[in-house]
């Protein structure tokens, strides 16, 4: 755990004009051990975070901007807590290379900040060892820019790890014809189905099937306030974890 600081941690929020950004600003302002020093919207210069003396920046922008934002933050020695999805293996590799030359800087990229979602991903990895079949249904609001969600991709990777540890082969599926893509995307060998619908926030269902039974994990975020405990955990812990951490579970004692 991080050591108590003699002054509030100075925090900047990138994407402050969005709904998640606004919630993050309010959460930081309400935390006695944190100080909001910069609200950065789409038209604002990232340099204002540097000028304000930010120690940690929360990136809640868009996939097209996040990698460059984080590159510039690391360049200035600012820790980053990132909730923006759209990262690729190539962009992650470039970030790791940059961080190797900035050994004191920590970056957290979290597919989901909701504590329950993080627990569901961990439980999915455990359950995957015991079931022949597994599929993911992720449901989000209509303004989400990417599909499948970062949470679904992270969950699929966790399931794949669990299956590999148990020596399980491919998920059984006799489908031969699917011209319209009804079976969804395949991520790490796991079928993922994405729903985009007005009125939703962020929801995931993980279905496991075995002989004569079904086991279902479900997590629902009904309001963006559900992400704030995880965001604040990331802000408080990122300086104590130099380098790149992918997934909030990296800061949690989940075994």
UniProtKB/TrEMBL annotation:
GO function terms (MF aspect): 4-hydroxy-tetrahydrodipicolinate reductase; NAD binding; NADP binding; oxidoreductase activity, acting on CH or CH2 groups, NAD or NADP as acceptor
Subcellular location: Cytoplasm
BP-aspect Gene Ontology terms: diaminopimelate biosynthetic process; lysine biosynthetic process via diaminopimelate
Gene name per UniProt: dapB
InterPro entries: DapB_C, DapB_N, DapB_N_CS, DHDPR_bac, NAD(P)-bd_dom_sf
Protein name: 4-hydroxy-tetrahydrodipicolinate reductase
Record-listed (S)-2,3,4,5-tetrahydrodipicolinate binding positions: 141, 150-151
Predominant location category: cytoplasm
Occurrences of domain Dihydrodipicolinate reductase N-terminal (ranges): 10-113
Keyword list, A-Z: Amino-acid biosynthesis, Cytoplasm, Diaminopimelate biosynthesis, Lysine biosynthesis, NAD, NADP, Oxidoreductase
GO cellular component terms listed in the entry, alphabetical order: cytosol
Residues annotated as domain Dihydrodipicolinate reductase C-terminal: 116-245
EC top class named in words: oxidoreductase
Enzyme Commission code: 1.17.1.8
Residues involved in NADP(+) binding: 42
Pfam families in the record: DapB_C, DapB_N
Residues that coordinate or bind NAD(+): 15-20, 83-85, 110-113
Top-level taxonomy: Bacteria, Bacillati, Actinomycetota, Actinomycetes, Micrococcales
Function noted in UniProt: Catalyzes the conversion of 4-hydroxy-tetrahydrodipicolinate (HTPA) to tetrahydrodipicolinate.
Subunit structure: Homotetramer.
Catalytic activity from the UniProt record: (S)-2,3,4,5-tetrahydrodipicolinate + NADP(+) + H2O = (2S,4S)-4-hydroxy-2,3,4,5-tetrahydrodipicolinate + NADPH + H(+); (S)-2,3,4,5-tetrahydrodipicolinate + NAD(+) + H2O = (2S,4S)-4-hydroxy-2,3,4,5-tetrahydrodipicolinate + NADH + H(+)
Active site, renumbered: 140 (proton donor/acceptor), 144 (proton donor)
Annotated source species: Brachybacterium saurashtrense
UniProt family annotation: Belongs to the DapB family.
Pathway: Amino-acid biosynthesis; L-lysine biosynthesis via DAP pathway; (S)-tetrahydrodipicolinate from L-aspartate: step 4/4
């Amino acid at each position: 755990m991080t050591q108590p600081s003699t002054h509030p941690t100075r925090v900047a929020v990138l994407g402050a004009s969005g709904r998640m950004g606004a919630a993050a600003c309010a959460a930081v302002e309400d935390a006695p051990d944190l100080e909001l020093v910069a609200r950065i919207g789409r038209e604002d210069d990232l340099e204002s975070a540097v000028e304000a003396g930010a120690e940690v920046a929360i990136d809640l922008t868009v996939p097209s901007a996040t990698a460059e934002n984080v590159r510039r933050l690391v360049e200035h020695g600012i820790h980053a807590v990132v909730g923006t999805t759209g990262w690729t293996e190539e962009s992650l590799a470039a970030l790791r290379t940059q961080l190797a030359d900035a050994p004191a800087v920590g970056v957290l990229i979290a597919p989901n900040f909701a504590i329950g979602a993080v627990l569901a991903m961990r439980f999915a990895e455990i359950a995957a060892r015991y079931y022949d079949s597994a599929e993911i249904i992720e449901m989000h609001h209509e303004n989400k820019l990417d599909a499948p969600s970062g949470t679904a991709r992270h969950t699929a990777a966790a399931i794949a790890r669990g299956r590999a540890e148990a020596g399980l082969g491919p998920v059984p599926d006799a489908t031969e014809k699917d011209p319209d893509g009804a079976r969804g995307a395949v991520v790490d060998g796991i079928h993922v189905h994405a729903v985009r619908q007005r009125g939703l926030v962020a929801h995931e269902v993980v279905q496991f099937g075995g002989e004569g039974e079904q086991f279902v994990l479900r997590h629902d975020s009904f309001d963006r306030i559900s992400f704030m405990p995880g965001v604040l955990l990331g802000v408080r812990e990122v300086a104590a974890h130099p380098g790149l951490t992918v997934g909030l579970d990296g800061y949690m004692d989940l075994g």
